[in-house]
Amino acid sequence: TDMRGWRTPEWKLIIDSANPGRAELYDLKSDPREFKNLIDSTAPEHVMARERLTAKIEAYVNKLGIEEVPK
Length: 71
Prior knowledge:
The chain is an alpha+beta fold. The chain contains one helix and three strands, in the order E-E-E-H.
C-alpha cells in the first residue's frame, strides 16, 4: 500500500496510489472523528475539496519526484 494524504483544518484526503479505487475524504469540521467517507459525494463542496486536496498531493509528489497520483 502506498498511501498519500493531505490535511487542512477543514478537510482530510487519503489516497491509496496502489489501489486507485480506495480513497477517503472527510469533512473534519462536521465529522472530526472521520465516520463518514465523502469520497463518492457529488455535493459541490465535497467535489471542490477533493479536487483541491488532490492537486496539493500531486504538486507535492511532483516536487519530490515521485510517480503520479492516480485520479
